[in-house]
Predict the 3D structure of the following.
Amino acid sequence: FGTAAPEGTPWADQLTDIKNRIESESGGRVKVKLFLGSVLGGEVEMVRDVRRNSRLQGGGFSTAAIAQGANIPLLQLPELPYLFQNNDEADYVLDEILYEPMKAELAARGFVLMAWAENGWRSFGTKGSPVRTPADLQKHKMRAQETTVHIQMYEALGTQAVTLPVSEVLTALQTGIVDGFDNTPLFTQAAGWYEPIDYYSLTRHIYQPAAVVWSKKFYDSLPPDLQTIVMGDPRAESIRGRKGVRDLEQTLLANFPDLGVEVVELTDAERQAFANVTRAVHMRFANEVEGARPLLEQVEAALAERRGG
């Protein structure tokens, strides 16, 4: 069972709990070995391993990595910039609208979706100067996650980013290949990415879910009782995983100055400038990804109703 999640994080704790539950409930008939911290390679590479049922039978990955590694562009939908305003909106859309369609998409590509998890709200970490406006990004060589929506976001913001797997980012920051990135407070600290940067600018431009998935080949090889055990309770698992990440965010941000990183708060107007520019990514997604337009319209209508608009 593979993941980019470093040891000692809520993600690693969640996967350890899943491992212990499965081994206990199966009476030892299923043994789970965890490979944390990208020791088996980047996320996209591990996703492909799960699909092949080769080195890995399951894993916990960002939805962007699964979308890329499994060739499911539609799975990038929840990562459209500024789609969500808060956690409640993200939870509602993922649980009530997207779970079943994405479960079907994943099954068609050789995966079984167990549960949503969470990376969190991504913001910009940079050396030298903070990011308060889209133009500020042009002063930096940014790393982008290896997926279309993230690359297109940087293009919309007027900068060409370097795509790198998680396992190569810290070295790239240390050697000057890049001097900035976007990720969540938890991942920034857990992966050591805070060490080379000076500023963490709270744009909160992408809410990034994650997912716990199994190889369908592996899952289908199990008898029904073990299938039930490895799946557990998906909704309860999602709630538990999200809580572990969210409970830490404010503490982590408060600790950043002690680590030599200045936290830069943006005004609503400053965030809106990023949202206005990156709206183009939504339009490209709707136009270019098969099946995206009706699903995105459904999500946007549900969000408008919840916002009272």
In short: The chain has one domain: 2-306. DSSP finds twelve helices and eight strands in the chain. The radius of gyration is 19 Å. The chain has a mean pLDDT of 96.
